[in-house]
Specification:
It is a single chain. The chain has about 250 residues and is mostly helical. The protein has 2 domains: about 5-45 and about 185-245, Helix Hairpins; about 50-180, Helix Hairpins, CATH 1.10.287.1700. Helices cover about 75% and strands about 5% of the residues. It contains 5 helices and 3 strands; from the N terminus they run H-H-H-H-E-E-H-E. The protein has helices spanning about 5-45, 50-95, 100-180, 185-200, 220-230; strands spanning about 205-210, 210-215, 245. Strands 2-1-3 form a 3-stranded mixed beta sheet. Helix 1 (about 5-45) runs antiparallel to helix 3 (about 100-180) and helix 2 runs antiparallel to helix 3 (about 100-180). The longest helix has about 80 residues, at about 100-180. It starts with 6 loop residues before the first helix and ends with a strand.
Length: about 250
């Protein structure tokens, strides 16, 4: 039995196919955009530089604080030692046990030298205390900055994770729509469509708007516009070779 295919049926098939690849293009564009956004989100989440930098500054401030504290403690320890020597010398000087004039003179000279040294150390202690206080303020500031960075990071992760889940749900829905659109398109045309998508940066189908190809922006001949509108054949742009679709 010979099956007769009427011209009207062929035109209907072609029109359905062109409309199908146009719908498929819209769905694929949305999927591409969604996947691009997912990649952007992953890139943002991979960038933890703010937290890393504030942690580095906090560690640096901690090192400076430890150094300043040790410096202060070292000066104070030297003051204690020198002060103890001075007190012991004063006790010997006024104890009455030392009667040799030369030895008494040595004790007096030593006492004066220790007094001068204590004064120098007290000045050094004051400087060390100032540095320590500055380091303490720096450490507290660095700690606050790190806590802020951690908080902002957690907020960002929550927002990005929520957006990612929404986008992934959208992609799943769009994949379903894509399967429906594929069912209305012959395999041969799908192959041509996929080849065109890979060649033209994902945009294989261009809408003819006011006589212009939306893909390249150049004018489309009247014959091509009429052919695309009537569905008599698959029409491509003379300039960019994208499939043309007329609503």
């Amino acid at each position: 039995m010979v099956r007769i295919i009427h011209r009207g049926d062929i035109i209907h098939v072609i029109m359905s196919s062109v409309a199908g690849i146009y719908i498929l293009q819209q769905v694929d564009t949305k999927i591409d955009r969604s996947k691009k956004r997912i990649a952007e989100i992953n890139s943002v989440l991979d960038d933890n530089s703010a937290v890393v930098e504030t942690l580095r500054q906090l560690q640096e401030a901690s090192v400076l604080m430890d150094s300043a504290t040790k410096k202060h403690a070292g000066v104070q320890g030297e003051i204690d030692i020198v002060s103890s020597k001075y007190e012991n010398g004063e006790k010997r000087l006024y104890s009455g046990t030392v009667t040799n004039p030369k030895e008494l003179k040595d004790l007096q000279d030593q006492g004066e030298a220790l007094v001068r040294r204590i004064a120098e150390l007290e000045d050094a202690k004051l400087e060390a205390m100032i540095v320590e206080e500055d380091c303490k303020e720096g450490l507290e500031g660095a700690n606050r900055n790190h806590e802020v960075a951690l908080h902002e990071r957690k907020v960002l992760e929550r927002e990005m994770d929520s957006e990612s889940m929404t986008i992934l749900d959208d992609i799943e829905r769009l994949e379903g729509e894509r399967e429906v659109a594929l069912n209305s398109i012959p395999d041969e045309l799908i192959d041509r469509y996929e080849l065109a998508r890979s060649k033209y940066r994902g945009l294989a189908v261009a809408l003819v708007d006011d006589g212009m190809c939306s893909g390249c922006g150049l004018g489309v001949s009247t014959g091509h516009v009429q052919a695309a509108r009537s569905g008599s054949r698959i029409v491509t742009c003379d300039n960019c070779n994208r499939f043309l679709y007329v609503k």
